[in-house]
């Protein structure tokens, strides 16, 4: 039913790159082709090579370079009059914005990308952009709003036999089921995603599915050793492909598994490691979740109660400011776990911020 996974973000002269190519390989090839396209005065090819450069930088956690690269790709695509390439650049920029915790900007850029993808007749970038919008809502905890979109995208990916997109959608829906306590459904969907990814040779998708399975095995079954084994298998892929963000989330999940098992000193070490990794790649969501795990572990190890209360209160403000509703609820539960009443505060008055037109965003 599903063919071999492919990477549609590797375009132009880079279509020979595999979905499993290491990010350092992608970056080197992309920069080489980008320079050649610029020398030859071919803005369309520069846009498509620049997209691969932007994505490699983003996945490596090199945020500043990724930001410059997607904007340069957009400008080149606009110069070439290539609507689909413009959409891909905006998709990259929106994905980066979500990674940085700028959710309003992410939604703006991804919506524009979906619109341009439809206008340019590129159903793949349109689908990726809608998927990005769905994932943005899921990460923020707005399951009711994006659950149906996830299901629609899954059905569409299944119809077209797109393994990589099917795996993504299954994992997103599975994560929502896991977070709302439907562990059996979550496990079945993560298991299906892992199977499809393995058969399609989608190593990145397989690593994320293994992480999801490890989570459910830990929280539902209490099987710590199996969970750690699944994470170890996933980590091998993360390291082989240089997946900085996926590796950091893998390490954070190790902390979760060990914390649930009551192995608080080990959990503390993994949370601290993940925290440093997330800070290195400027990923605020992962940083906040690692801080939460670290605070809970330290509390179990005898940290001063007032220090724990202060840390959790700061995390509550941080998650609320970023817009991470599910993470904010996790902080609230942690406060209850340690008998720390959450200080109620008046809601902040939010100023409406005008999002500049895309021509200004991509300058």
Output the keywords.
disordered C terminus, mainly alpha
Short synopsis of the structure:
InterPro entries: TPR-like_helical_dom_sf, TPR_2, TPR_rpt. This protein is about 75% helix and about 0% strand.
Q: What is the alpha-carbon Rg in Å?
A: 21 Å
Question: How is the biggest beta sheet arranged?
Answer: none
Q: What percentage of amino acids are in beta strands? A: under 5%
Number of helical elements: 17
What overall form do the CA principal axes indicate?
Answer: globular
Unreliable parts: 343-363
Mean pLDDT: 91
- The number of distinct β-strands equals 0
Say what oligomer this is. single chain
C-alpha end-to-end distance = 43 Å
Walk me through the structure.
The protein is mainly α and 363 residues long. It has a domain at 255-346. Helix content is 77%, strand content 0%. It has 17 helices and no strands. Helix 8 packs parallel to helix 10 (203-221). The chain is globular, with a radius of gyration of 21 Å. The N and C termini lie far apart (43 Å). 53% of the residues are buried. It comes from Streptomyces thermogriseus. InterPro entries: TPR-like_helical_dom_sf, TPR_2, TPR_rpt. Keywords: Repeat, TPR repeat. Pfam families: TPR_12, TPR_2. This is Tetratricopeptide repeat protein.
């Amino acid at each position: 039913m599903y063919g071999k996974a492919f990477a549609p973000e590797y375009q132009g002269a880079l279509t020979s790159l595999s979905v499993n190519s290491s990010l350092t390989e992608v970056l080197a090839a992309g920069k080489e082709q980008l320079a050649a396209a610029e020398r030859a005065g071919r803005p369309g090819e520069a846009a498509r090579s620049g997209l691969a450069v932007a994505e490699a930088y983003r996945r490596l956690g090199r945020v500043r370079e990724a930001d410059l690269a997607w904007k340069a790709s957009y400008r080149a695509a606009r110069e070439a009059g290539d609507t689909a390439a413009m959409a891909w650049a905006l998709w990259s920029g929106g994905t980066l914005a979500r990674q940085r915790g700028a959710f309003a900007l992410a939604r703006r850029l991804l919506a524009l990308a979906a619109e341009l993808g439809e206008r340019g007749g590129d159903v793949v970038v349109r689908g990726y952009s809608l998927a990005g919008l769905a994932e943005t809502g899921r990460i923020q905890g707005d399951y009711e709003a994006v659950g149906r979109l996830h299901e629609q995208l899954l059905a569409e990916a299944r119809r077209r036999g797109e393994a990589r997109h099917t795996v993504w959608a299954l994992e997103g829906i599975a994560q929502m089921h896991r977070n709302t306590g439907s562990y059996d459904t979550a496990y079945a969907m993560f298991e299906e995603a892992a199977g499809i990814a393995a058969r399609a040779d989608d190593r990145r998708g397989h690593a994320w599915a293994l992480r999801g399975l490890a989570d459910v095995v830990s929280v539902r079954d209490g099987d710590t050793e199996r969970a750690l084994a699944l994470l170890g298998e996933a980590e091998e892929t993360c390291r082989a492909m240089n997946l900085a963000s996926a590796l950091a989330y893998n390490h954070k999940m190790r902390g979760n598994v060990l914390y649930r098992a009551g192995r608080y000193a080990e959990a503390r070490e993994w949370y601290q490691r993940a925290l440093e990794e997330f800070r290195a790649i400027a990923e605020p969501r992962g940083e906040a979740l690692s801080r939460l795990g670290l605070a809970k572990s330290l509390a179990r190890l005898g940290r001063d109660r007032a220090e724990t209360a202060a840390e959790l209160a700061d995390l509550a403000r941080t998650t609320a400011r970023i817009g991470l509703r599910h993470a904010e609820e996790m902080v609230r539960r942690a406060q209850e776990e340690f008998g720390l009443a959450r200080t109620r505060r008046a809601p902040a008055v939010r100023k409406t911020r005008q999002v500049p037109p895309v021509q200004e965003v991509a300058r």
